[in-house]
Amino acid sequence: MQRRLLEILACPVDKNSPLQLLEFEAKGDMIVSGLLVCRKCGRFYPIIDEIPIMLPDDLRKPEDDAAFVRKWHDRIPKDLLTGKT
Q1: Measured between alpha carbons, how far is 54 from 63 in angstroms, rounded to an integer?
Q2: In sequence order, which ranges of 1-85 are alpha helices (DSSP H)?
């Protein structure tokens, strides 16, 4: 995902913008892995292989979220994992 996209992305649930970026891997101006966080509703959206996965809850696959959290658990703030934002 290109950094400049942060200016136009909003939470698909509550339309809050801007989203907070937590960057895990980058190549130049491209974010390879990370999280987009909506601090208004507490939801997070993973960036996987440069693609932000911005789906509402009913379209997300829990097993995909779990795999992402397992991979990056040491980089994800604990408040996001516990739901206490």
Answers
A1: 16
A2: 62-72, 78-82
Q: How far apart are CA 45 and CA 12, in angstroms?
A: 10
> Long-range contacts made by residues 26-34, C-beta under 8 angstroms, separation at least 24?
29/2, 29/3, 29/4, 30/1, 30/2, 31/1, 31/2, 31/3, 33/72, 34/1
Residue type, 63: E
- Per-residue pLDDT tens for 19-61? 999 999 999 999 999 999 999 999 999 999 999 999 988 999 9
Number of independent structural domains in the chain: 1
Residue 35 is part of which domain span? 3-82
pTM tops 0.70, yes or no: yes
